[in-house]
Design a protein that fits this description.
Elements: H1 25-36, H2 38-57, H3 65-90, H4 98-115, H5 120-143, H6 149-168, H7 178-185, H8 199-225, H9 233-255, H10 262-280, H11 282-292, H12 294-299, H13 304-330, H14 341-351, H15 363-382, H16 387-413
Length: 414
């Protein structure tokens, strides 16, 4: 007599739900989630490790409130450029002119405000318009004439650097109005009772925590509604706790010094605005589409020339904003300003998860990549690493980040 035995295989857990964890526990869930989201978590973990390393190596000097505030001020203009550069790279292009354009806009600002006594709000608007026009000029050659972005922006790099020398006549020009200096060096005003902390910074920090939690929960629910894969519940909660702890720590450090720098608010608005644009707006999806697969995007009706033109126009305007912040921070416009800024912005984008082939990257990733470079620079200065070895280490980090991207693509493909 034969016995018919039917093996019952348990049905897989629906996307977004935590499967049975009898053998693995929380650690196994974390490892599985990180394998599936290697690009998302890799650089975030690297940033955390770099912060811990230099905090220990510098005997805690890295995390002193004053140093954290200086870290924001010193890297603000690179982070602004990195946001725009990330969009350019996602669209499948590159921009080598942003450092020279930063210097050029700074020189125009100096001529308008220092030489001609133009009111600073009017000068700021004119400078942003000039930056947008410069970006649009390059975007026209790239999008509508089909000239490679490398060639167009290389020409722009030389052109804007030469115009900077012409406008400044080879000299440093300053100082800028004090109100403009506050844009790059100022802090939020004190309000409310004396609590030994900056009350307005605390309020903004708690509001940011609430926004982060709301955004993460909403994104998870939306992914579940469309039957997309989401991390396990325990890993998701662990991620939320880590995000809240990071924001709270930075908030308390800034609030215990002079409060949040004004430029940090500008960065916050840019991150939220461009993050929403790239996640939810139609043009954001089109930018990803033309960078990921241009022929398919064209067949889908994407106006690739218009999108490319707007991407470079936006890059020019952000370069102008970075130029104003840089000039205001150092209270002068210099012919040598902006040197290698384009390389820093490109490195921040690739370290933050952008792909050489386009179509991949996030605005938050650009910020993380910029912070990795900023913490490396700041930490190595604190512990006395020479500038020669600093260049070697930053080059190795960039190479490792791009190598990681290539390895991750091959792993996913296999």
């Amino acid at each position: 007599m034969s016995t018919d035995v039917t093996a019952k295989t348990p049905a897989p857990a629906p996307p977004g739900r935590e499967g049975g964890a009898s053998g693995g526990g929380l650690l196994q869930l974390m490892l599985d989630g990180m394998r599936r989201n290697m690009r998302q978590y890799g650089m975030l973990m690297a940033l955390g490790l770099i912060v811990v390393l230099f905090a220990v190596w510098s005997d805690g000097d890295l995390l002193l409130p004053r140093n954290v505030s200086n870290l924001v001020l010193q890297n603000s203009y690179i982070l602004i450029l990195a946001i725009g550069m990330m969009l350019v790279i996602i669209a499948g292009h590159i921009d080598l002119s942003v450092g020279s354009l930063t210097a050029f806009v700074g020189s125009i600002a100096a001529v308008l405000m220092v030489r001609n006594d133009l009111p600073w709000p009017v000068a700021v608007i004119l400078c942003l318009a000039i930056g947008a026009a410069a970006g649009a000029w390059q975007g026209f050659f790239i999008a509508y004439l089909g000239i490679p972005s490398f060639i167009v922006t290389l020409a722009g790099m030389l052109l804007f650097r030469g115009l900077t020398e012409i406008f400044l006549k080879g000299q440093t020009l300053g100082p800028f109005p004090k109100d403009l200096q506050k844009l790059a060096n100022g802090f939020l005003p004190e309000v409310g009772p004396n609590t030994n902390y900056h009350n307005l910074t605390l309020l903004l920090g708690f509001a940011l925590i609430a926004f982060v939690v709301y955004q993460e929960v909403r994104d998870r629910k939306r992914q579940q509604e469309f039957s997309l894969d989401v991390p396990p519940v325990k890993l998701f909660l662990l991620k939320l706790v880590a995000l809240v702890a990071a924001v709270l720590t930075v908030t308390l450090l800034l609030a215990s010094y002079k409060g949040a720098p004004i430029v940090l608010l500008i960065l916050g608005v840019l991150v939220v605005g461009f993050g929403y644009l790239m996640r939810n707006a139609i043009i954001g999806r089109h930018i990803y589409a033309i960078g990921g697969n241009l022929p398919a995007a064209k067949l889908s009706g994407v106006k690739d020339k218009k999108v490319t033109f707007l991407v470079f126009l936006n890059m020019g305007m952000l370069a102008a904003l970075a130029g104003l912040v840089f000039a205001a921070r150092f209270n002068a416009a210099s012919p040598k300003a902006g040197l290698n800024f384009e390389l820093e912005a490109i490195a921040a984008s690739f370290i933050g998860g952008a792909s050489m082939s386009g179509g991949v990257g996030t605005v938050l990733g650009a910020i993380i990549g910029g912070l990795v470079l900023g913490v490396l620079n700041n930490g190595m200065n604190l512990v006395g690493v020479g500038t020669d070895w600093q260049q070697v280490i930053k080059g190795a980090v960039l190479l490792a980040a791009v190598g990681f991207d290539v390895w991750n693509k091959r792993r996913v493909g296999s």
